[in-house]
Amino acid sequence: MLKRYFLTCFWSLLLLAAYLVSLLLLFVVKGKVDSSTFLLAGCIWVALAAASFIPLLSILIKKIWFFQGEGVPVTQEVLEERLLAVNATANPVRVITRRKKLIITWRYKETEWCELFSRLGMSRIYELHCRFDRSTGTVLLADRIRSADFLICPDNVKIGFPRIPLPFLWGQTGRHATVEQYATTEAFEYNFHPKEIKSPVMGTILASGWNVRFTLF
Question: What percentage of the chain carries pLDDT values higher than 70?
C-alpha cells in the first residue's frame, strides 16, 4: 500500500509541476504579445487545465491502484450473488442493483439504521459503485458521497445527489476482509467509515478471482 501511496503522490505532484511549468511559460511570453492575445491564451490555458486534470488523475489512479485477483475467477453471476447475499443478513450495509452495476451503501432507508445514523449526526452517506468488466475479469470501484439529512426516519430523509470525492485510496485485502463479516459484526462495532464497506467488498472480489481497479468514474 505504501508504494501505491508514494506513486500516487509522486505522479500527482509531477502533473501539478507540469501545469505550473506551462503557466510560467505563458507568463514568459507575456511581454511579447498584446494584452488581448495574452488574455485569450490565459483563458485557453485555464480551460485546458480544468478539462484535463481530473481525467489525467483518473488515469493515474487506474494505473496505480490495481489489484490482482486470487485463484480461479468465478463467473460474474456468482460474484454478484456473493455480494447480493449481504442483503439477506442483519447488518447496516445493503447492495443495490442498478443497470449494469452494483451500489453498496448504508441502509439509511430502514428505520433501525436510519435512527442510529440520525443519533450519530451523520451528514454524509458513502456509496461504492461497482462496474464489472467481464472481458478482463476486473471490477472497477468508484467512490461516491451524498449529503444526508435524517429529519424523520425513515419517511423524511433527504439524500443529495452523488458527487465525486477525493479518491478513497485505501483497502484492506486481508484474510478476514470479506462481506461475510457483516453477519457477525455487532452494530456498536461499526464506525460507519467508507473502509467498512470498501475493504470487505474488495476482499470478496479478489477472493473470487476477479481483479480490482480503483477509478474516479
Answer: 96
